[in-house]
User: Which sequence fits this backbone?
């Protein structure tokens, strides 16, 4: 070991990675060699240690080029942030005025500015921000219904992304679930019959990641609101995907928007910041001032509140919504969703990567099908365009793309590798270079 550490390569590696990490890596290399009873050449051990150290120091959360065509890709961090939001997040990572009112020098609320912006852009009376939408729903259930019952239609007992199951969230928040109606049909009368003195909340959930087609119905939100008012029970609407207003995504199928829900009279509306709103991971609750104030005083909020970098990115994103005419253009998720296949085709052609002929790879511009993703617009595909690479094994090429710097995540379909221009946005030039480098790197 001392000989390895003292060798020129050893000294070099220790300078870059540190002496202890190098010693540990050499220890692992030695153990591997011994277990296979192979002779241990010093050069070989140091080479193993170098690869090992490089793999371990590569960032897990690293920027990637999204060529999948899935705009809100959960594995790739959902919504890409606007430059304004990225900058705000980066700047706030140092000291930041999270809880200080700079006019008076006194303590201020970390929530206040984002909450004001939310009320301004949605016309809600009050608002509150949490760490994510699951936290927002749990907080509302805990504050308004702990120890009592929450009514949910059997058609809305959804699971979102594996770990968010409505029945479990209600239980974990200390309330009891009251199931209403059936999987495909729930009537207003089913809710009305289920209401008794122990029911504290009606929870309406947007089944955001699937559609029930055929013999299916449920009351409108306005009907539920009327029932809630009549019986003195708050109606909370989890719209999930967080489209602020329908007009920001013209031409898309109907998706419940925050503004529509508030107009229909929901007492509280909750949504995710990083889905169709196009901001950072956050949960937002908006609605009745008295209820929002109660949520704001709930002790769980201390464990569910967002940090300064999130608040900065959220504030910057919400600021973009103050100018409704330019929201779709300035929020990347909305812009990516609304570009036409013709626009993308032209961009893909303009940046067509030049692949050396001796690699056997041939790239063409083709029409593709992109997806909104992130549990929004289930079943809705968007006509899109991008590059198709044929002539070399697509899965090997996909792997080479993922291992590149920066990594490019693409989609394999049949004999081709598809790189969708929709989700590359302005990074299409970088993606062309990454694709070329991956093709060239293959043996
Ligand atoms: C996505 C989603 C959630 C979970 O939101 P997170 O921000 O991921 O916690 C909850 N409810 C609905 C309807 C959703 O679509």
Assistant:
């Amino acid at each position: 070991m001392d000989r390895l550490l003292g060798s020129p390569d050893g000294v070099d590696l220790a300078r870059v990675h540190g002496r202890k990490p190098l010693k540990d890596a050499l220890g692992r290399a030695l153990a591997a060699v011994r277990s296979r009873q192979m002779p241990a050449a010093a050069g070989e051990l140091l080479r193993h240690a170098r690869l090992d150290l490089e793999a371990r120091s590569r960032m897990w959360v690293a920027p990637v080029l999204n060529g999948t065509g899935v705009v809100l890709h959960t594995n790739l961090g959902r919504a890409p942030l606007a430059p304004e939001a990225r900058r705000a997040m980066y700047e706030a990572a140092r000291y930041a005025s999270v809880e200080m009112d700079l006019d008076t020098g006194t303590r201020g609320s970390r929530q206040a500015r984002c909450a004001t912006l939310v009320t301004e852009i949605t016309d809600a009376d009050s608002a509150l921000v949490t760490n994510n939408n699951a936290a927002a729903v749990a907080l509302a259930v805990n504050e308004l219904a702990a120890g009592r019952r929450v009514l949910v239609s059997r058609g809305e007992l959804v699971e979102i992304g594996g770990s968010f199951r409505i029945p479990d969230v209600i239980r974990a928040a200390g309330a009891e679930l009251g199931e209403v109606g059936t999987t495909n049909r729930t009537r207003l009368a089913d809710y009305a019959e289920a209401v008794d003195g122990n029911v504290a909340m009606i929870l309406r959930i947007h089944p955001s990641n699937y559609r029930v087609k055929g013999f299916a119905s449920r009351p409108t939100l306005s009907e539920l609101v009327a029932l809630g008012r009549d019986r003195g029970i708050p109606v909370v609407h989890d719209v999930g995907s967080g489209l602020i207003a329908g007009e920001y995504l013209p031409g898309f199928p109907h998706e419940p928007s925050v503004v529509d829900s508030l107009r229909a009279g929901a007492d509280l509306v909750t949504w995710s910041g990083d889905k169709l709103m196009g901001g950072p991971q956050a949960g937002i609750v908006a609605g009745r001032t008295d209820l929002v104030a109660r949520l704001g005083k709930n002790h769980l909020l201390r464990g569910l509140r967002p940090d300064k970098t999130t608040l900065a990115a959220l504030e910057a994103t919400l600021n973009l919504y103050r100018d409704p005419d330019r929201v779709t253009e300035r929020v990347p998720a909305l812009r990516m969703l609304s570009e036409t296949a013709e626009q993308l085709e032209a961009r893909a052609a303009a940046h067509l990567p030049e692949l050396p002929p001796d690699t056997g790879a041939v790239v063409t511009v083709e029409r593709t099908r992109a997806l909104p993703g992130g549990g929004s617009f289930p079943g809705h595909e968007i006509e899109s365009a991008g590059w198709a690479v044929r002539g070399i094994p697509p899965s090997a090429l996909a792997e080479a793309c993922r291992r590149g710097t920066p990594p490019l995540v693409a989609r394999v379909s049949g004999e081709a590798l598809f790189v969708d221009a929709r989700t590359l946005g302005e990074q299409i030039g970088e993606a062309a270079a990454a694709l070329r480098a991956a093709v060239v790197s293959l043996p």
Observations:
- The longest helix spans residues 19-35.
- DSSP finds 19 helices and 18 strands in the chain.
- The radius of gyration is 26 Å.
- Residues 132-134, 160, 164, 205-206, 208, 238, 240-241, 272, 283, 375 surround pyridoxal-5'-phosphate (CB under 6 Å).
